[in-house]
User: Fold Iron ABC transporter ATP-binding protein from Phytohabitans aurantiacus.
Amino acid sequence: MPAANDDLVIDLDGVGVTRSGAHLLRDLTWQVELDERWVVLGPNGAGKTTLLNIAGARLYPSTGTARVLGERLGRTDVNELRTRIGLSSAALAERIPGDEIVHNVVVTASWGVVGRWRERYESIDEVRARALLDQFGVAGLADRAYGTLSEGERKRVQIARALMTDPELLMLDEPAAGLDLGAREDLVNRLAELAYDPDAPAIVLVTHHVEEIPPGFTHALLLREGGVVAQGLIGTVLTSDNLSKTFGLPLKLERSGERFIAFS
Ligand SMILES: Nc1ncnc2c1ncn2[C@@H]1O[C@H](COP(=O)(O)OP(=O)(O)OP(=O)(O)O)[C@@H](O)[C@H]1O
Assistant:
């Protein structure tokens, strides 16, 4: 058996996920390195969330092998592994109580909990939480109740929370879903800054829309019906042809600088 490559943040080999006879993922081989920023693109039901759940050590593959941050799933303590991964998703966001103070939404990530009860936080954690809220332009909302924020503000707080533990891998599941144009552009610009930051973790961003791909993202994985349509450098993989195959209809893709737009 070949030795594991320590520079690989995600290393999937022939991964399949089967549920009730359905193939959610099939024969997926995918490697993500430390300094890469990946976008995972595909239509509803393509298997994107299933893939994030594997990469986030929340699901085991039915077939194949999955290594995350050098640890092989099934042979490691996933609770320890999960503390090294920052995840932002709608499912996690739903667990944040509406009356939670925004600052606490972020700082509680360092204890892997939602809801601040009796935990005591080091002041270094308090400072980091403030800095992350500032980085995402929501420091002024730190003392507000989370439930009173707009959807765009909530998304930014969720990403700040995902970054709180200084993860080695950051995974964002549809971070721009439900945002208006201004809020989307604000988020895309902030994610671009993160993507260009050499100290930022490896990033995997899941989306349905090429318009939501932030500048600075380096690679793309296109999924359809649990299988890979194409993967590799973003400039090579994102073509009209590949996008049409992925979404199952004729599409034109245009590029403007580092942004993309698609239409039929
Ligand atoms: N437990 C299960 N049993 C059977 N099928 C399932 C199960 N869980 C998920 N699926 C199916 O697997 C497919 C992939 O689901 P997944 O959530 O990974 O897709 P997705 O690409 O994230 O979709 P979306 O963009 O709509 O969020 C879907 O068709 C879904 O209905």
Q: What stands out?
A: The pocket of adenosine-5'-triphosphate is lined by residues 19-20, 22, 24, 42, 44-50, 208 (CB under 6 Å).
